[in-house]
Automatic annotation (TrEMBL):
Pfam families: Copper-bind. The lineage of its organism: Bacteria, Bacillati, Cyanobacteriota, Cyanophyceae, Coleofasciculales. This is Putative copper-binding protein. Residues 49-156 form the Blue (type 1) copper domain. InterPro entries: BlueCu_1, Cu-binding_ET, Cu_oxidase_CS, Cupredoxin, Cupredoxin-like_Cyanobacteria. It comes from Allocoleopsis franciscana PCC 7113.
């Protein structure tokens, strides 16, 4: 009799557990199914490419006029196809934006950034959201480069 009671209670416990697990499983699966489209629909990133100099060693940014809109997310892809190092320096613009991250090589930097140095052949990605409308100057502060025309204009416009 006792044996019977134990097996009955085991039976119900198993039933209970299997129901519990199937609910848990469906919650996990449901979450997976629901969260996938949500992740895909996450705020879009607009990619913008800027080259620091070129292979002919012209001291310019290509392009040198950048337009962004407040509140949108951008990935600024910087490269340096020239034979010498350059800087992407735009301190006021950086102060007027929220930086999500900067990626260069295998390093990812979180937080504020003001200036990026790119060696020949270097690449970096800067993911940010412009916050404050305005016009901001861009330049390469290596001696002679700003003077030679390695400057640019960054415009952040309101939504
Ligand atoms: Cu330069």
């Amino acid at each position: 009799m006792l044996q019977f009671a134990v097996s009955i209670s085991n039976y119900f416990r198993r039933q209970y557990l299997s129901r519990y697990f199937s609910i848990l499983l469906s919650v996990i699966l449901g979450w997976g199914v629901l969260s996938t489209p949500l992740a895909l629909a996450a705020p879009q990133v607009t990619e913008v490419k800027v080259s620091l100099g070129n292979s002919a060693n012209e001291l310019k940014f290509f392009p040198n006029n950048l337009q962004f809109v407040v509140g949108q997310r951008y990935k600024l892809i910087l490269d340096n196809p020239s034979p010498q190092k350059h800087y992407f320096t735009a301190k006021d613009f950086a102060d007027s934006s929220w930086t999500q991250k900067v990626e260069a090589g295998k390093v990812e930097i979180k937080g504020a950034i003001h200036e990026l140095e790119l060696k020949p052949g270097g690449e970096a990605e800067w993911v940010f959201v412009p916050m404050k409308p305005g016009q901001y100057s861009l330049r390469c502060p290596i001696p002679g480069h700003t003077e030679a025309g390695m400057t640019g204009l960054i415009t952040i416009s309101a939504q």
